[in-house]
Design brief:
With about 100 residues, this protein is an alpha+beta fold. The protein has one domain. It has four helices and three strands. Strands 1-3-2 form a three-stranded mixed beta sheet. α2 packs across α4. It is globular, with a radius of gyration of 13 Å.
């Protein structure tokens, strides 16, 4: 699977889990001020994953996979996932609120 296909599969899992995913910034990274970076946060009690368009797909996949592993483990365990997607989620390191 390509990184784009893995990322699309992770977006679908996030939608099913009720996790809001937002893409921010421009792909060229030409914004004024500090460049946005990908991460996990809570907004009004809801879990959001913010992905910076200027960051490589590999990093976006890592951030989203880690959020899913930390906050949607039950959904992931009960679903069939393509092996490439499952491998990315299983090796993801937890990040964001409430993680060590």
């Amino acid at each position: 699977m390509t990184d784009a296909e893995i990322l699309e599969s992770l977006f679908e899992l996030a939608r099913e889990a009720g996790i809001e995913v937002r893409l921010v910034g421009s792909a060229s990274g030409g914004e004024e001020g500090p460049a946005p970076s990908s991460g996990v946060c809570r907004v009004r009690g809801e879990l959001w994953v913010v992905l910076a368009r200027s960051e490589p797909p590999e990093l976006q996949i890592d951030v989203l996979a880690a959020a899913l592993r930390s906050h949607a483990a039950a959904l992931i365990e009960e679903r069939f996932l393509p092996p490439a997607v499952r491998a990315r989620v299983e090796r993801a390191r937890p990040r964001g609120p409430g993680t060590a």
